[in-house]
Amino acid sequence: MLFEIASSVVVAGIGGYAFCKKSGVSLATNDAAKIKRIFENANLGVKEEGRKKTIRLHRKRPIDGGMEYVYQMPLGMSFKEVESHKDVIEDGLNVQAAGLSISLSDLRKLKFNRTITKQIKRLLTKHKKARKEIELGFDGMLRIRVYDEPLPSLVKWKGQKISGWKVPAGMSRRGMIEHDFEAQPHLIVAGSTGFGKSVFLKQLITALAISKPDDLELTLIDLKDGSAFRRFENLKQTMYFATDPDSAGTALKQAQELMNRRLREYAEKGYEDAQEAGIPKRHFIVIDEAADLGKEALEIVKDIARRGRGPGFRLIYATQYPTTETIPSQVKRNIPARLCFVLDSATASMAALDMPGAENLPEIKGRGIYKRVKLVIVQTPFISNQEIKKQIAVHIRPRKENEHEHAANREGRSDTFVFSET
To answer: At residue 141, what are phi and psi to the nearest 5 degrees?
Structure first.
């Protein structure tokens, strides 16, 4: 009996090996050696004593979904130089020298029984579809994380309430990245049309409305005829709403006046900002397609970006045409946090992120680069319009109340705060 099983396994193994050879599959792949070869071929290194010195493998370790390789870099070689060749390294790892390659880790997962041939066929199918992706890091050593499969192309919005003023920015390799509007009060969002910018803004507004219904105030400006934000116009939290450059200027002026009133109130009470005054309210100004703002409106945006943090005003400045004109330097200096989707050129990426990279993102809706201190590639959460309608229904004002609210906004609103020491 044992002899029959052993014979079957051996035959199956030989059959699987023969199948791989017939399919042109290499059974010996060493990503560490491949990376070193890529560096040499790309001329990444420094000359020392008449010869070219490049990276040297220090150690490697398995990580979730792949392997991390840690390299010693020669003196004189910069991490920025390596970062600029990320696409070269990634493409090189996905080049198959002789058909398809299967790693040793893949082979270890095989069960050598009568189903070995079927297992290898499934493995081949998987590898034909899979594409390796990498993450780069530097902490004195060069860290290259190689993932056997790409990030998921769809991350569904789960509807969980946010903690504090932290909003999901996107799923990374290490979990969900959150943007904390208390730590970084403003955010620039850029990306070509159709790649997820407006969907991200809608999920952000939805998350804020359902999590902070009593502490949230909104100024919503949608300069694409209101197509994305119209569903939020009648939210109880929406104070000012605009869909064209003229009404946008008016809405921003009202928001600026409100900000100034609150600054005066805090100063009169001896408080530095909303947090010290114990005021929980936060006023979010969300602008979709800010490139269409008029000159006067843009000056107000610059002022809010500069002075808005203290009185609790938060600016989300979004555009699909990032240039030095559409994102003024005063806005960029006051908003270090960025979220950037696919862009059509390195020039546009430089305008949005201060570095190239967004032009090399895969053309996947919702795939972006989140920048706070370091760059992180993320898949932003997707929420359907039907789900938005369901989630915000309880916060929609009745028609009569809505008309009264708009009349109050036109006349100007006064604020009454109860100050408490925190």
So the answer is: -125, 150
Same domain flag for 160 and 24: no
- For residue 136, list its beta bridge partners: 144
Q: Consecutive 10-residue runs of the chain (422 residues): their mean pLDDT? A: 44 48 50 93 87 92 93 93 90 70 63 76 60 90 93 89 90 93 97 95 96 96 90 97 96 97 93 92 96 94 96 97 92 96 94 91 95 91 96 86 53 53 48
What CA–CA distance (Å, rounded) separates 53 from 46? 5
Q: Tell whether 211 and 259 lie within a shared domain.
A: yes
Distance (Å, whole) CA 5 – CA 2: 5
Residue 65: half-sphere exposure toward Cβ, Cα within 13 Å: 18
Give the HSE-up count for residue 353: Cα atoms under 13 Å, Cβ half-sphere.
27
Cα separation, 304 vs 384, whole angstroms: 31
What residues are paired with 340 via a beta bridge? Answer: 190, 369
Q: Residue 193 belongs to a domain with what CATH number?
A: 3.40.50.300
Q: Would you state the pLDDT for residue 2?
A: 42
Position 416 in a domain: no
Indicate the pairing of strand 100-101 with strand 25-26: parallel
Task: Tell me, yes or no, whether 224 and 350 share the same domain.
Answer: yes
Domain span at residue 137 reads 2-147
